[in-house]
Write a structure and sequence with these properties.
- This protein has helices at residues 2-17, 155-166, 186-199, 225-230, 269-279, 309-321, 424-444; strands at 50-57, 61-68, 76-80, 88-91, 93-95, 98-99, 102-103, 106-112, 120-125, 132-135, 143-147, 171-175, 204-207, 246-250, 253-257, 288-292, 326-329, 335-342, 345-346, 352-356, 377-381, 385-391, 396-405, 408-418.
- By secondary structure, it is of the alpha+beta class.
- It has 2 domains: 48-136, Immunoglobulin-like, CATH 2.60.40.380; 140-430, 4-Layer Sandwich (Purple Acid Phosphatase, chain A, domain 2).
- Helix 2 (155-166) links the parallel strand 11 and strand 12.
């Protein structure tokens, strides 16, 4: 009986583990399975700040956000350019929320500034003795973004964050799915603690994913209660009426964060906001335009097929006519880079589309891609990792995807990207279309 059981057991293990042992086409890398969720405990006093993170507000201000268990904590930030010497002070506001039987701590948001570019500032929150520091982005290019989607809080998340933090960067962009709390609110607190060593040092600019929705019929019908309370972004400064979509500018780059789970048709507030936001961009002053959203518009992985299609049909033309340079998405737990595309065809004036939903989620990798591969898809691989977009100057940027292999960060996909603002052909075609449209309107009048 034992002799029979062993072969059967071996066969069972081979069948179960074979998808996890698929090898990459270009080397002998063995894909790793998902790892356990890490619950980061609260080890500070109730009055001490925890879950500290920062985000950009306007061209020279920063929002500092944190949580205290004590309801008596002050929403005050002291800051300066030398350790322990604070010649600046700002007062902000606080909020809190309840979700069924869970009550959040006191969530503080304080905007500080004006701040000097490319400068290290030291700060403390709420009068606490603990000091933090951050570096402001540069005023001019070059500029480097770290990009990581579907982050979660697993052992892979820790590895990804260590890789991101090991090399200097200016701003982190996260296209949705932060904590994977999925209504279990203490996971939001745990996530805040796991990212604090990184998010307190560099601005983190995020948009929501499906795991942030957390809606519940009748009681919480609109969702995003925890996300909006904890991760406040500069939506008002960009003319948006919702924290779920906004834009900001930094060092010659206009970044647009779209909401995949908010109304986006031509009659929606988000569509009208996007239309107005794109119209304000001056490509002579901001030669680069980058867009982030959660559900990818282009995807050859078998996971989440078609989930971004209705949004693509509604908004793609707006991005194309504005000559957006690159669109980052998450949701699919794998990496994929496409050529420049418009309306499902290669187009030299369309954005480059990149899926990077492989930050460290608890659900594992999306291992299966459609075959044969689409000629539009230039590189695809189901591995954990993160990306770096270094905008070198007004015309060129360098993209690299760093595969996450335990202690090593291996660059497996990289290419040079030329800004569409430097393409006379693409800009002239837009100008000609605008003139034709304007002439047609005048004729009708």
């Amino acid at each position: 009986m034992k002799k029979l059981c062993l072969p059967v057991l071996s066969l069972f293990l081979i069948i179960c583990l074979s998808p996890l042992l698929l090898k990459a086409q270009d080397d002998d890398f063995i894909r790793q399975p998902p790892r356990r969720v890490i619950l980061t405990k609260h080890t500070r006093s109730d009055s001490d700040p925890q879950q500290v993170h920062i985000s950009l507000v306007g061209k020279d201000h920063m929002r500092v956000s944190w949580v205290t268990d004590s309801k008596h904590g002050k929403s005050v930030v002291e800051y300066g350019k030398a350790p322990g010497k604070y010649n600046g002070e700002a007062t902000g506001e606080d909020t809190s929320y309840k979700y069924f039987f869970y009550s959040s701590g006191k969530i503080h948001h304080v905007t500080i500034g004006p701040l000097e570019p490319a400068t290290i500032y030291y700060y403390r929150c709420g009068g606490s003795e603990q000091e933090f520091s951050f570096k402001t982005p540069p005023q001019k290019l070059p500029l480097e973004f770290a990009v990581a989607g579907d982050l979660g809080q697993t052992e892979w998340t820790n590895s990804t964050l260590e890789h991101i933090g090991s090399i200097d960067y200016d701003v982190l962009l996260l296209p949705g799915d932060l904590s994977y709390a999925d209504t279990h609110q203490p996971l939001w607190d745990s996530f805040g603690r796991i990212v604090e060593p990184y998010a307190s040092k560099r601005p983190w600019m995020v948009t929501e994913g499906n795991h942030e929705i957390e809606s519940f019929p009748i009681i919480y019908p609109t969702g995003f209660k925890a996300y909006n309370a904890r991760w406040r972004m500069p939506y008002q400064e960009s003319g948006s009426t919702s924290n779920l979509y906004y834009s900001f500018e930094v060092a010659g780059t206009h970044v647009i964060m779209l909401g995949s789970y908010v109304e986006f048709d031509a009659e929606s507030d988000q569509y009208r906001w996007l239309q107005a936001d794109l119209a304000k961009i001056d490509r002579k002053k901001t030669p680069w335009v980058v867009v982030l959203l959660h559900a990818p518009w282009y995807n050859t992985n078998t996971a989440h097929q078609g989930e971004g299609e209705s949004m693509r049909q509604a908004m793609e033309e707006l991005l194309y006519n504005a000559r957006v340079d690159v669109v980052f998405a998450g949701h699919v737990h794998a990496y994929e880079r496409f050529t420049r595309i418009y309306n499902n065809e290669a187009d030299p004036c369309g954005p480059v589309y990149v899926t990077i939903g492989d930050g460290g989620n608890r659900e594992g990798l999306a291992l299966t891609f459609e075959e044969p591969a689409s000629p539009l898809s230039l590189y695809r691989e189901p591995s954990f990792g993160h990306g770096r977009l270094r905008i070198v100057n007004e015309t060129h940027a360098f993209w690299g995807w760093h595969r996450n292999n335990d202690s090593n960060s291996v660059v497996k996909d990289q290419f040079w990207l030329e800004s569409l603002s430097s393409s006379k052909t693409c800009l002239e075609s837009v100008n000609q279309k605008e003139k034709t449209t304007s002439s047609s309107v005048n004729d009708e009048l």
